[in-house]
Amino acid sequence: MKLYESKLAPNARRVRIFLAEKGMSVPMVDMDLARLDQKTAAFSVLNPFQTVPVLELDDGEIISESAAICRYFEELRPEPPLFGIGALERARVEMWHRRLELQLFFPITQAYRHTHPAAKVLEPQQIPDWAELNRGRALRAMTHVDEALRERPFIAGDGFSIADILGLVALDFIRPARITIPENLVNLRRWRETLAARPSALA
Question: pTM of the entire structure?
């Protein structure tokens, strides 16, 4: 198998961190997004949506979307469990993963894509007002996440999960999106520092 990814793509980083937490190694094909490798005819056959990451299995089967790829590796190597243990914990992980993806990560990426000069290759028609709207949404989401972290170390409970991986990737992407974590969100800052200290954060 091989993983098509890019060091510049936050979604690809989600999978790299997941693999590092699992202690797994997969051959990787680095895609140059600035050169628009993802828009070539050859890659479009693998993923018509022209995004990374994409996992190509040995039999030619294609899996795209970060969470789906991570789910595949979770099934191959259940330990350590990163999607939760038991019905309730798995539901909590899924809930927070979805919340962070829609309410935090997506607004951050939109703020980046619609303002950063380097993103014009991905978003030729940038809309600054849309970026500003999403900055506000991201900041509001941060306050809710901060409150949720008041009495627990990780976003879905006591254990590290795929939801925390997404949280780290989202918060690390705020700099190019020109968003700053408010000083008063001490729980959010503590969480981000804890996640960044894990060896897998360097993946």
Answer: 0.97
